[in-house]
Amino acid sequence: MKLIISLLTLIFTLGSASSQETINKIPNILRPENGVSVDGKSLMCGHAANFQTAMLNRPDGSAIERRPYDVLKYDLFMDWRNPLTSESVAGEGRKFSGKNTITLRIDSAGINNFVFNGVAIHIDSLFVNALGLGQIRIPDILISQPNNGEWFVSLPLVTSKVGDTLSMIVYYTHTGTDNRGFLLYDKGHFVEMNNNQDSVLIPERLAYTMSEPQDARYWMPCNDAPYDKAIATITVRVPFDNTPNATNFSVSSNGRVTVGDPKFDGSVQKMYRDYKWSDETPIPTYLMVANASKFKEYSDWYKRVTNPNDSVEIMNYVWQQDYDTEEQDGIKYSAKIAFRNVPSMMEHYSRLFGEYPFVKYGHTVAQPFQYGGMEHQSMTTVNRDWLRRYNENSVAHELMHQWTGDLTTCATWGDIWLNEGGATYGEALFFESWGAEPQYRSMMASKRRGYLATQPQPPIYGIPISNIFNYATTYCKAGWVYGMLRKTYGDSTFFRTMRKYFGEFRFKSAETEDLLRVFEKEIPDPIVPFRVFFDQWLYSAGHPKYQLETSQTYNGANNQEVTVTLTQTQSGENVPEVFVMPVKVTFIGKDSSRKVVSFLNNKRVQTEVFYTDFVIDRAIVDESEDILCEKVNMITSVNEDEQQVQNARLQRQPAKQGEEAEFQFSVPITGTASVSIVSMLGKSITTLQDGVLTSGTYSLRIPTQGLSSGMYAIRLTIGNRTQEFPLIVLQ
Q1: Cβ of 558: how many Cβ atoms within 10 Å?
Q2: Bridge partners, residue 619, by sequence
Q3: What is the pLDDT of residue 198?
Q4: Which of 614, 638, 662 delimits the end of a domain?
Q5: Same domain membership, residue 508 and residue 593
Q6: Sequence-ordered list of residues with C-beta below 8 angstroms from that of 7, at least 6 positions apart, any chain
Q7: Domain-embedded: residue 624
Q8: Both 237 and 215 in a single domain?
Q9: Which pLDDT belongs to residue 131?
Q10: Predicted confidence band at 156 (pLDDT cuts at 50, 70, 90)?
């Protein structure tokens, strides 16, 4: 490998057209937000900062816009002594120094310009370690920040070989002035909650990071994109008080921890301690986290379903008073109550989707925290308010993210529904494990209401990125997508396919099309082609509104012909012509007999005929609530009295005097029935039948003796329904 090291050449290159072309090729998805703030994320997960780009519409291929390198490892060090001890939580009090060693692999030949993200940070110095040359300091003149949030580095070497690795050692200072990315609050900070009806003072100074979707750049230099997962080590230095009975700061983060021994810093005459957290499983930047406060640490344990002799530690970081409280009453905070069912949740999800994938799990409680929870890999951050209110579904949601989001990560922000929809559906799955089908349906019904209550309703995929965390679509509707796939193909097939998906993209990033391809491979003969299913539910907007009409004809006591007409309507833009779905209709008789029929609904107005061995009293479309839809006439009553005489007919007429006509009729259920001959003026001439008849088909001979030629009628009364049939008598 030949190296060209020429400072003058590189300075020239920095300002050259080719260099500018390289800069211009940096994908827009990685460009800065320019400070615009949008609170579009739900109360469930993360931070919805605004971006200026819109996601692609349905992709024909990959929608990932990659940089010409792949980050393999972050080795991050941050000194938080100043933020944790300063008298201020603003300005100079927020400053801290850091060092990030970024190991990356070259994916394109001839790269001599690198771009990485960094906002609210100042690059103090930058070194490159590559190809056995040792550390080479990059002159400041070769480091620039022409755009807020992006740093451009021209390297004093050129490599033309794909696959080469190098390390960039970035020494930096965090200069942020507000709570973005890195958040800092003082002990005694006043927190107002619940529309100013509630307030609390936080018990200890607190520093933490919050990065979703693109705020990791506010506290570390990095390639801040979800597709680029890397091994990470995070070391945080915090002050240490060695006085007797002192309560000290601790740090929570991803992976496993090594706690350093307390050391003395002679320059400031104070003690410190380092917490080194290492995660050997790849992680995107938005899932990396560091939290520091005077936490009470306590653990619970989950026994792996694949090996009961192997346990996973659940490490919880809470404030002491929240640990001591043994009750949860809406006022008191109780961590032990809030997290008590986490082991059973982990067991349930492991049985469904494969064994819990990380070396540990845990929670760090934060207050104030703008959101409900954030699923940092192996260490979820939760709002302290969860500790005093029943939020079992929220705890389950964040845990489910360890599969849908952390084990397998959305490759672009347009694919975020994979994460959030999966976690939302995980809520219903856990409650199903508690209360079976009723609890499941109750949870799914709440998500349907959450979806229908919001207008307009954009597609799940391809909406403007400022709205990707739309609760109605990204959470509720996306959760229903998983639910509809499960209900269409059954538990065995659905969960097997999901395990295949998590296995294929284990510790990787995935796009929507990747999930589609896994389903196509695992289910080669689907009821609805998966391209059609994904197009209508993900790449298009809306949902069907069903209207059901039902009628029946009696062909005998055990042969009822039932005609079902299903009409579906949609409204809005970017809505499919028709939602192609298997639809179930339940027939219910007066004697509570039941029959469920299904058909593939692929027309706006569709008529289907079925047969039952009982008389239908009512019909219900999608009784089991397997489809995200609205219903008009969900329960359609079949008017028994109107239908009872439909199968009656008069035969062998006109009849001559003295001959017999024949009258056939059906009685659907045991009851009173009368048959008589009446004049055209409605005067009864003779009664042929009057009394109780059991269900069945009957035939009566109609005598014409004594009747003069002319027009008459056969009057049939069943129940309270009467109908007349013309009778002609000839001489």
Answers
A1: 11
A2: 587, 636
A3: 82
A4: 638
A5: no
A6: 139, 156
A7: yes
A8: yes
A9: 63
A10: low
Question: Which value, to the nearest 10 degrees, does the dihedral of the CA atoms of residues 490, 493, 499, 500 take?
Answer: -150
Q: What CATH number corresponds to the domain at position 442?
A: 1.10.390.10
Tokens 């640490």 -> residue: 297
Question: What is the span of the domain harbouring residue 721?
Answer: 643-730
Residues 656 and 614 in one domain: no
Q: CA angle 575-577-582, nearest 5°?
A: 100
Three-state helix/strand/coil letters over 263-291:
EEECCCCEEEEEEEEEEEEEECHHHCCEE
Alpha-carbon radius of gyration of the chain: 35
336 lies in some domain: no
Residue 667 tokens read as 């009685």
State yes or no: pLDDT of 27 exceeds 50.
Answer: no
Q: In degrees, to the nearest 5, what angle opens at C-alpha 306 toward C-alphas 304 and 312?
A: 20
CA 220 to mean position of chain CA atoms? 28
Residues 201 and 272 in one domain: yes
Domain C-terminal end among 615, 638, 661: 638
Closest CA to 724 of 681, 691, 671: 681
607 falls within a domain? yes
Strand order in the sheet with 671-679: 655-656, 721-730, 710-718, 671-679, 684-693
Does the residue 222 lie in any domain? yes
Please compute the mean of the pLDDT values over residues 21-37 and round it to a whole number: 27
Q: By the 8 A CB rule, do 585 and 564 touch? A: yes
247 & 272 share domain? yes
Cβ pair 149, 50 in contact under 8 A: no
State the pLDDT at residue 575.
92
- Total domain count, the chain: 4
What's the rounded mean pLDDT across residues 336-347?
97
Task: Say which residue the tokens 């997290």 belong to.
Answer: 339
At 157, which CATH number? 2.60.40.1730
DSSP strands (E only) in 11-68: none
Q: What amino acid is encoded at 153 in this protein?
A: V
Cα–Cα distance for residue pair 545/569, rounded to 1 Å = 5
CA angle (701, 707, 708) in 5-degree steps: 140
Query: Per-residue confidence at 614, pLDDT binned at 50, 70, 90?
Result: confident
CATH of the domain at 677: 2.60.40.1930
Mean pLDDT, range 159-170, rounded to an integer = 85
CATH code of residue 633: 2.60.40.1840
- 183-219 pLDDT per residue, tens: 999 999 999 887 767 889 999 999 999 999 999 999 9
Residues 530 and 579 in one domain: no
Pair 442, 588 in one domain: no
pLDDT band at 158 (very low <50, low <70, confident <90, very high): low
Structure token digits, residue 51: 């971006």
Smallest Cα–Cα separation from 317: which of 383, 381, 363?
363
Same domain assignment for residues 443 and 562: no
Instruction: Provide the pLDDT for residue 637.
Output: 57
Least confident span in 49-63, 79-93, 491-505, 706-720: 49-63
